[in-house]
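Cdc23 domain-containing protein, pasting as requested.
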Amino acid sequence: MSVLLYSHLLLASDTKVLENDGLENCDAKSIEWAKHILSGRPSLVFQEAVLPLKDTLNLKSALDNANIVDVLRNSILEKLCDNSEHLLLLAISLLQTFLQSNYTGPLPPRSSLYILLNGNTEQAEQINRLLIASLSSGGQQAYDLIDDPLSLVLSLLIFEKITNQTVLSENATDSNMAVPDIATLTSSGFSSVAHWWLGRALLVHLSLLPEPSGIIPSVLSVIFSSIDLAHAIANDLPEHSSQDVTLRIYTIFYLENVKCSLAINTEQLCLASLTKVKKLRKFEFVLTGARAKRTKFQRESHSGLIILAKSSDELFRENQSNIENVSPEEFHLESEILLEKPFFESIADEPLDEQVVKKQRLDVDAGIEEEKLLPLALCQENIPKELMLLDPNAQPKLADYDDIQLLLRFYVIRQSSPAKDPLVEEELKALISRVIYQEGVKNWTIYSRALWERSILETSKAKTVERGILQMQSLVEELGLRIESRLLPEGNINSHLRLSYIHQIPLLPRWELDAALAEKYMSLGVLRSAIEIYERLRMSCEIALCYAAVGDEKKAEEVLVKRIEENPNDARALSILGDIRQDPGLWEKSWKIGKYVNAKNSLARYFYNPPASSGLSRNYDATLEHLNDSLRQYPLSFDTWYFYGCVGLECDKMALAAEAFSRCVSLDPTHALSWSNLSAAYVQLGKLKEAFSCLRKAVSSDAQKNWRIWENYMLVALKLNEWNDVLLACKKLVDIRRDKSGDGSIDVQIVEKLVEVLISSDYPTGDNQQLTHYQKSCTEFICVTLPSVITSDARCWRLVAKVELWRKRPWAALDCHEKAYRAISHNPDLEIDENVWSETVDACEDLIAAYESLGEIEGKFGPGSLVCKDWKYKSRATIKALMSKGKNRWDDSVGWERLLEMRNQ
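Structure tokens follow.
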């Protein structure tokens, strides 16, 4: 029965559910604590749990012992109850308290440390510093001004005790955390719930660090990639529990899997989970084009993008608590020009031949590709009927989980797309607009996040930057956290609603919101305001990076030196100072102090491309050694693996390169260059079949315009005698390069091989004989595509002539021979270069031979017609014309003698 209770905690259900869901067998304390957590008062649980122990607890020894983690284990955890279910509730309440203090607001009435010290705040500041230091990981220190760090540290330690996992190491700079084997540890629903909450707590821990590094991302990847968590919980639910609970368990698992991938920079793996949760929720949405008016004075509508979306009627659940929900204030543009939001015309009224997608030369009959981040309807006929009936200017409210799906897709697209790409920004605006502009009451957490992301987009546009900045300032203040000066009056706050979806949406702590505001000031050139915010947040590294970005490296060094003097163990500050000074000693020190991976990456780049002032030459061994150290510490870094593989290729260590690029494609299966480089390593290792398989993956991903990958594909296919693939690659290369290179895009030697294979068998004749796929494709390529590309290559025309002759079309073959001769005879170097003169004489001889052999064959129009009736006259005319060009210049050459001989014959 307890699993059902913990399921409701995972789902952040309403407290009323606990009274009506058959939890009578759960003890009263568990029910009471669960209600405290779900009602947004989690700090009460810690207060009740610690109250009986207050007189026996003493943290004074923590001041004499730098390792406060051991002190907490010995002084608190051992004195807490041994009831694992109560311990789990306590750990959950502490985690929620920390989130409320630093992410959602409002601040709890009392911090955990205040409760633990019984109001004695003399030692609080020093203990807080030790607690924050204990949260360091991978050489990166947690943010200095975290509120109530004791809540998170205690939460992690309790999860450590329940799951038997090492969560906080005795040495904060060299974690000995082991990667759990989820399949063997989640046999029971309770164990699965504990590991799930452990994953949530580690995601919170990771969000306190500037960058993902260390072992935490690997542990998170294992926890949230195992569907066994959801299976075990669903199997342990009592029979009377509703199907809705099971469905929601699987829904939030897939959503949190995506959130985890975004947090650890493996966003390439998100699509599978997003596709599964979309099908699970029966959620329909599509990106399409529609005409819209954007300004108050616009008379004609212009094409734009819109998301049409509708939640499944049977799965739509309107949370009753939303009735009392208070949404964050949304600022209006108040513009004399712009409309508040685009006004769309009815989707179905747009004529098919005027649709924006018609101009893109795309396959409008392809339908909707469901397994894409944004399913795209290229024309109105592809939009599902239910979505076509929606009013584009007043779309219905979506279920909260479906709003979150759109937000997560927004983050994946933004994180995996080029910055400031106009088309990508339009797609992102369409996604955010669908979340913001919908009917009905909105959840505070989801709505405020959508407003925040809209503001980020708007601050890049001159006409909307004012609203964007003001909206960002408002959202920072509405957290109800410590703000020195408020621009706006404080509104009503419902803390339990703010916590309801915090574990499904990417985490943004309050200082990151402030820092993002400072970053926007930087992008607008308001350096002073940006630095003021960073100084208030005590973000010394960001201040230094600000100064470095505007070229004031001396000031950046001063800030970093001061930071290092105050905190000698700040490995990140040491590494950034090393980047500015290009000093390997600082990087080595950063690595020694905190195993900071960026320090090793900088060392690797330094030895790969040493500055001229160093007097060093490129050192592959040192580069690989430093990259290897970096990857041992943080094995999920795609960029580091890619660099590692490239260095391996360059210094001819193919086994190493193959391993590196294998890791790259496991992290991002759609990265074409990684597949191509992996194939290059396999070719050198003699593994042609594996190389060919990799190249197939490369050309099927995002390499449609990369001619180098297609060329490698063609050459490996040639070695394996895969002629269909050779032909495909050759056609693609011509298509990619024809506009720039003309007939230089044709690989004549490869085409010769293709023609040789084609004409090796007789041309099929008769009613029952048909061309094979290769014969049909190759004939079309040689006889249709190539003639439209060839400009001056006589050799190519002769190949076309061969195929035309094979097709029993001698008239077309003779025409190709004539074009081959014209191509070379029009060479402007004919009168100055004897080699060109000799080649032209050869071409003339070939043409005369073609006239002689083909001229009297039955022609195009059947019996009675000839290929070239006057072939003798044309032969004499051709020779005469060439002799007139070479007279007085080449009349003593060997070629001239050959022409005389041809004329006499």
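Note for the archive: The longest strand covers residues 284-295.
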